[in-house]
Amino acid sequence: MTPSTLDAHIAGLLGRRLRHVFLVSVLLLIPLFTKAQDPAPADTMAVDSVKNPVICGLGMFNPADSSGLNYEAFLWSDTRSMGDSFKLMPGFFLRDLGGIGQPDQLSFMGLDSRGIAFLLDGRPLRNPVTGFLNVYEIPIEGVDHLDFRPVELFAGGTAGTMNIVTRHFSTIRPVTKIRFSQGPYEHLMTDVFYTQNVVRDLNFQIGLQRQVRENRFVNTSYDSWNVRTRVRFNMSDRFNVSLTDFYRSWTVGMNSGIDIDSTTRLGLNQFSDAEAIVLSDRASEERTQRDVTLSAIALLLADTASPTQMNAYFTKAERDYRDPSGLTSSPFDRYAYELHGVVLQQTIALGPIGGFAGLQVERRIAGLGPAGVRSLTMTAWYSDFSLHVSEFLRPSVFARGERVGASGHLTWGMHADVILGSSLAFNGGYSRVTRFPTLQELNWMLYRFQGPPDLLEQHEKIHLSLKVHEGPLTLEATGSERRIENALLFRTYTPSQRFPDIVLDVLPELQIRQLFGSLALMLWRIELKGGVMWTETKEGAAYTSFHPRFVLTGELTYRDVLFDGALEMQVGLQSRFVTRHTGLRFFPSHDLYAENSGRLIRTFSTMDLFGVFHVGDAFISIAWENPLDRKYMTVYPYPAIGRNVKVGINWVFLD
Q: Of 411, 464, 347, 532, which is closest to residue 117 (Cα–Cα)?
């Protein structure tokens, strides 16, 4: 089905109902706040501010959710994408396809990205077809901080919710920022950003980013653009509204990895850029996506800690995968989808009771090639409240009622914080969560039911966390056990074939046990960090190995100020150790990760060196990745990149 046919069908099917909801919401809110107090004086408007004098930043939920990954941390690292930020965080595992722009996968607590609900300033961002988000889609330059909630409150978030909070500004002076990065294989990334208050309370910002990379192996070139614009208006000290447009497009060569058997049969090196034979030398993918969001935040109640937020959003996306050789093909080579939705959320602070409650309505429409047009309406309510019983005990409960089509289910959970003094805290919880299938899972061509024919995943999880903070030492540890009924697992049905068929296995039971933790020690100007993650997965009574049993990480950094404050620097090394496992394999034509059957990914360890130097308004970064030139893979059969050097600069201009 062509995009134009899909557009026509959508127009007839959807009408203008949700657009009317958007308009009416805005018209109802505006009169309430036009009679405002006088605007704040100019000297209260800070450059690079993410808050206005009264109302918290748009898109935020709870400051306690912060993952510790924020804009300042990005400046003091060589981070290129969101995926890079999570490489060393226990509990997370990044599957890397060895090239800029390739669809790497981020998993948490043993679940792949279908189990993480991705939000952008509180609005849903996940692909409704695959449940997947490519971490290269979100430019790190536009991110203020990342909030991660291990609470399963949003659609698909069986492992938790990742809320990407973008940067909001209020500045009477124009701010221009340029970031440039150069890496191996002619990788160039340029990001230009500008913002200024057009009038006293109306801020405009625009960002433009371009990335290109030449071939490493045959057919891996990459070219992408993204444009992000926002207009934010402080209508009063009790009402903020913003309109955001986020557009991106990219083209990438997709060679399906290295043909290991053919390469080794000829006596060639599978890790050599010049010698390795790729599985597909002409396949490529083109994508475009536009996300438009009308956001508002208001103080409807007298309490300034209880804002009301609304996100009315629209998404349109297209995917076009082509393989002129005809070697790879699937019903998901080409698809398009639209999302129309509204999220309304109220924060509540009533003495010892705090939390929030919200409503969501979303219309999903997708053209899935041979499967035709599919449409679903999702409605949901959700709430998360905690009770401050004492300084030592804070129990919490959360619930979500979700209906997709004619099927409705309740997700709920409870947890508690036990705080023993200023240096020791515990957190424990229990939850029961339902994950509705993605459109891809609903319209798959080859199912294998090992139990009842039910595509609803039922998750039951129990966890316990510990945090110790004593002087320069911080220790965190978490243990969890998860039981999944009707677990949906993509598998290679004919693993011996060069391009195997894929079956969607519906398992009666899958168990995931995990222990992960981190240790941080600050001594003088030296900081030492270490992490460990142990994962055990069982399919019924049999152990599986699609997740590494052990992942160890380490980081050693030194930070100092030299030349009477003219130079601030941070240098260090990072390392990672991963045990052997079968893992997952990416299939470009299907646009999914499936279990890698019959091929082991061997144990590997890596080390990277980096330095960041702050001079004036510029941050200069230099990284020497994999200086020992280790040969390894995190996804079969995609070799990770070898020894390489990359440099970058972030520069802010204030006029």
A: 411
Question: Mind giving me the DSSP string for 66-96?
Answer: EEEEEHHHHHTS---SHHHHTTTSTTEEEE-
The neighbour count for residue 47, using CB atoms within 10 Å, is: 14
CA distance 38 to 61: 27
Over residues 372-387, the mean pLDDT reads 94
Q: What are phi and psi of 472, to 5 degrees?
A: -85, 0
In whole angstroms, give the CA distance from residue 212 to residue 444. Answer: 34
CA distances from 59 to 6, 51, 203, 216, 360 (A): 31, 11, 17, 38, 15
Note the Cα 31 to chain centre separation in Å: 37
One-letter amino acid of 331? P
Write the pLDDT tens digit of every residue in 302-352. Answer: 777 788 999 999 999 999 999 998 777 888 999 999 999 999 999 888 889
- 491's CB contacts (< 8 A; 6+ apart) are 502, 503, 504, 505, 594, 595, 597
Strand, coil or helix: 11: helix
**Per-residue 3-state assignment (H helix, E strand, C coil) for 211-253:** EEECCCCCCCCEEEEEEEEEEEEEEECCEEEEEEEEEEEEEEE
Half-sphere exposure of 483 (CA within 13 A, CB side): 9
23 or 568: which carries more pLDDT confidence?
Answer: 568
**Amino acid letter for position 372:** G
Q: What is the pLDDT of residue 57?
A: 53
Distance in angstroms (rounded) separating the CA atoms of residues 213 and 519: 37
First to last CA, the chain: 51
Tokens 């969001």 correspond to 293
User: How remote is the C-alpha of 234 from its chain's centroid?
Assistant: 29
> Helix, strand, or coil here: 618?
strand
Report d(CA 397, CA 354) in Å as an integer: 11
Region of residue 21 (phi > 0: left; psi between -120 and 50: alpha; otherwise: beta): alpha
**Contact by Cβ (8 Å): 390, 370:** no
For residue 146, CA distances in Å to 69, 140, 512 come to: 6, 10, 26
Two tokens, residue 127: 């692909």
**Which one is predicted more confidently, 173 or 18?**
173
Model confidence, pTM? 0.87
Long-range CB contact pairs, 263-271, < 8 A, 24+: 270/637, 270/639, 271/631, 271/639, 271/642
Nearest in space to 209 (alpha carbons), one of 142, 127, 146, 284: 142
Look over the chain and give the mean of its residue pLDDT values, rounded to a whole number. 87
- Phi then psi for 64, rounded to 5 degrees? -70, -15
Please give the Cα distance from 575 to 577 (Å, whole number): 7
Residue 36 CB neighbours (<10 A)? 14
| Per-residue pLDDT tens over the stretch 497-508 | 777 889 999 999
Please give the single-letter amino acid code of residue 322.
Answer: R
Written as one letter, the residue type at 362 is E
At residue 13, does pLDDT exceed 60?
Answer: no
**Structure letter (DSSP) for residue 56:** P
Give the pLDDT confidence of 171-191 residue by residue, as tens digits.
Answer: 888 999 999 999 999 999 999
Q: Where are the alpha helices (DSSP H) in 67-175?
A: 71-75, 82-85
Cα 221 to chain center, whole Å? 23
Q: In angstroms, rounded to a whole number, what is the distance separating the alpha carbons of residues 182 and 510?
A: 43
- Token pair, residue 187, equals 């990788």
Token readout for 182 is 């150069």
DSSP character for 271? T
Burial 241-254, CB ≥16 within 10 A → b, else e:
bbebebebebbbbb
- The CA distance from 483 to 462, in Å, is 9
